[in-house]
Amino acid sequence: MNIHPVTANNFFSVIDLLQRNNLPTEDITAATPLFALYDSNELIGTIGLEYDGENALLRSLSTSAHKRGIGGGKLLVDFVEKFAKENNIHSIYLLTTTAADFFDKRNYLRITKTDVPEFIKQTTEFASTCPASAIVMKKVLQ
């Protein structure tokens, strides 16, 4: 399996995978930092990271239904955490309605919506796309 930045060539395939996984896509553009996971030539996963200075919002983590359980999600999160560290990002935040247990196992802590930095609060995902019931999580990168 390998991970590549999303380009114009695979942008619509990534959007399709996100929609099949019931993840928001209305605020994603070609400029949104997204990465795609491939098994041979098959797109099997996605992840994104919006960032500003020391903080980032992890978004758009998805895997193909028929490829779940083979470690693709973990591989994508490890990749984006490494990418964040290389870009001097100190904390990653996320909102989830379905994957809190997955992120608990990866040392993300549940926090309140009031405990996020202003940059995260201003993202479309935080401000309007995710439901009020979403769990907010944070990981400080070492």
Describe this structure in words.
Helix content is 28%, strand content 32%. With 142 residues, it is an alpha+beta fold. The chain has a single domain (2-140), classed as Aminopeptidase (3-Layer(aba) Sandwich). The longest helix is centred in the middle third of the chain and has 15 residues, at 72-86. The radius of gyration is 14 Å and the shape is globular. The mean pLDDT is 90.
Keywords:
142 residues; alpha+beta; Aminopeptidase; 7-stranded mixed sheet
Topology (elements, then pairings):
Layout: E1 2-5, H1 11-20, E2 34-39, E3 42-52, E4 55-63, H2 72-86, E5 91-96, H3 100-104, E6 109-111, H4 118-121, H5 124-129, E7 135-140
Parallel strand pairs: 4-5
Antiparallel strand pairs: 1-2, 2-3, 3-4, 5-7, 6-7
